[in-house]
């Protein structure tokens, strides 16, 4: 049953992908576009280097906090399905889990994790 | 065949929905006094039904553009893949009691997977041209993208609790007595913010913003830009479908058939999103990140606990 | 395909503006024209509009910008002399109302193939020769050397805040970007999206003083005219800041209001709307603090917002009769300057209403308070863009752009030296 649903999902996504490709067109040869046109747009300015670089990602500490929460999300998916059957015990367990992670958010906030480092 | 009907339904909804969003956006814009309406001889340019088609035709015929040393595959595929994500998201939404294109047992998890993938594709669209302003747009957006993901997850889990299932059709059917927008009042406002984020619309438009010369679209032209804009609007349509199903009872309603009710609710959500998009200004990304983690996330916790207590009683 | 081209002709013409001297108010008025679509980047435009005189030192940048529009494209010139390479078939026009028609005709001729685009003005060669060099013929040498595909890769440098050694992005952002004041070009060094260094390479084009303020230096002029000009100026600046922070619809409605502004109009509705949607918390609010010394150099509303009581109108007894008190002192960040524009605009409208009914005229001609700052015969406000090198480092990109938009940096041109 599930396999047929996944197959249908694959067909639908392939069809949407094909629609997107048809609209986007076949990639053209880049040799036809002149070099002055290809320069990066900077309002008439000139770049010193390529844009690709080891960019300083200013929100990096926030992403570490996010990973902790992602693991919690993995736990919550099956928890949501059996919740009503399990009753208040499940609510209390999840509450404790969320409280512990909330302490993590407060710690991060005090340490300046949400500032543009 | 059922599969054929599903494919046609999804593609048609994306296309017609995108056109409808463009029309509604223009009507909202004129109503809020924020559209250019001056100039002589503009009677047909003011027609909101023709404007999206003529703009699309102008984009279709516009000459293409390539930068010096781009990641060509990434640049071409990012809009197409973004459109595919929108299609996948729309596929799990039930249209009536019997017709669901893909009745996935883990539809909620699929939506949870679409959001980070959308963030990846928006970043890829900014990275690929190898140009400075798109790069800044892509990197800046990721901070926002990672911040709204958690809010979305808690809100969707809260919606899944009374349904005892992660299947979207079960979520819709659990709203037989009372819609989730009434049962879990914090859910829909938070989910609207997620909707603005996943299609980087309005106040959360950190990727394609005005102060970056169009951000990730600064180097796009012609058909590539057309597909990117189409994909963005298609994502709005898809999101409105899942929001209508999760909070407004989906296809359920008296008198009219299921699909008509779903379309009415989708239009309602779309109008809300478009008005919010025009109304609210953009915060600085740092400020929005702080807001999302310290205000919106605790509200999402509260929403979850509320839903949990509600489901048990 | 002809039906597609004819359908595309009905769309608004995508235009990218290269703004020269004294053209900014007209560009803002053109934003209300439904036949034109003002693109944010030249890649989406078919027409390049060069409005206002371009100083000779900015002509190379204009040539680079011209070539960045995807071929085929057409350039329109309004009140400026065409570049050398385009002079023979340049489309020059004088009447501002004609732009919609001319641009529409140009775009239609491009779409239907009646006209070829313009040739490139820069030589068709890569920024640095790289063909055939390096391991794969791409110009790179070893791990981090050479110029792969024509430009070097970024090298590491210490970050200004935490000393991490990552790659800074260095580029010069040009004189023809509508987000910046017209003519402002700067060399930026970014660490991530935080600005680390700013070096101004080209100051904003000097602005001509409006005629009514010039006349006020010689003889009494009606106060209502002065104050209406001031209100219009402040509202135009505010609409640009609103556009930057994402309030496009509201910014267009403000421009529409500016066109139809009358004395005794009230902008309290606008203030209330901005407060309710949170404009005073948007990008830049709370940042962009100027010191007292910088405020002294700036003059005008920015100085008054920072607490300096400099207003030439206090020395005029006619203004005192109308009940004028200088407003200010809200703070030295962007939010204070936005609020200052709103306060001064509403005060100006109020004064204009009272002056129109009583027919009051200025009586003090030694110095005039222009929207840019204090103006005296022979002493005009100078260009203040040098403060950006001290102000911008440490600001995130959107905050920096909002800060630049909240300051009025262009100097006022001396009319004696010949006007554009």
What labels describe this entry?
heterotrimer, A: 117 residues, mainly alpha, C: 420 residues, alpha/beta, Cytochrome-c3 Hydrogenase, chain B, 2 domains, 5-stranded parallel sheet, 14 helices, 16 strands, 15% strand, globular
Which SSEs are present, and which pair or pack?
The complex is a heterotrimer of chains A (117), B (313) and C (420).
Chain A lengths: L1 H23 L10 H4 L21 H27 L1 H23 L7
Chain B lengths: L1 H30 L19 H11 L10 H20 L15 H21 L4 H29 L7 H6 L6 H4 L3 H12 L24 H25 L10 H22 L5 H28 L1
Helix pairs in contact in B: 1-3, 1-9, 1-10, 3-4, 3-9, 4-5, 5-8, 5-11, 8-9, 9-10
Chain C lengths: L1 H8 L3 E7 L4 H7 L5 E3 L8 E5 L7 H10 L5 E5 L12 E3 L5 H13 L28 E2 L3 E2 L10 E2 L6 E2 L2 E5 L11 E7 L2 E9 L4 E2 L2 H6 L6 H22 L3 H12 L8 H10 L14 H7 L1 H6 L11 H5 L12 H25 L8 E3 L4 E3 L11 H4 L5 H10 L5 E2 L7
Parallel strand pairs in C: 1-2, 1-3, 3-4, 4-5, 13-16
Antiparallel strand pairs in C: 6-7, 8-9, 10-11, 11-12, 14-15
Helix pairs in contact in C: 1-4, 6-7, 6-12, 6-14
Could you say what the CATH topology of the largest domain in chain C is called? Cytochrome-c3 Hydrogenase, chain B
- Gyration radius of chain C, rounded: 24 Å
How would you characterize the largest beta sheet of chain C?
A: 5 strands, parallel
Most extensive contact: A-B, 66 and 80 residues
This entry's quaternary arrangement is: heterotrimer
Element-by-element helix/strand order of chain A: HHHH
CATH class label of the largest domain in chain C? Mainly Alpha
The CATH H-level superfamily of the largest domain in chain C is Cytochrome-c3 Hydrogenase, chain B
What's the N-to-C terminus distance of chain A? 49 Å
Uncertain spans of chain A: none
Structural class of chain C: alpha/beta
Radius of gyration of chain A: 24 Å
Question: What is the count of helical runs of chain C?
Answer: 14
Describe, in plain words, how this protein is organized in 3D:
The complex is a heterotrimer of chains A (117), B (313) and C (420). Chain A is 66% helix and 0% strand. Chain A has four helices and no strands. Chain A has helices at 2-24, 35-38, 60-86, 88-110. The longest helix of chain A is centred in the middle third of the chain and has 27 residues, at 60-86. The model of chain A has no long low-confidence stretch (mean pLDDT 90). With 313 residues, chain B is mainly alpha-helical. Chain B has one domain (2-312). In chain B, helix 1 packs across helix 3. The radius of gyration of chain B is 20 Å and the shape is globular. The N and C termini of chain B lie far apart (43 Å). Chain C is built from 14 helices and 16 strands. Chain C has a five-stranded parallel sheet with strand order 2-1-3-4-5. Chain C has a three-stranded antiparallel sheet with strand order 10-11-12. The radius of gyration of chain C is 24 Å and the shape is globular. Chains in contact: A-B, A-C, B-C. Chains A and B meet through helix 1, helix 2, helix 3 and helix 4 of A and helix 1, helix 3, helix 4, helix 5 and helix 9 of B.
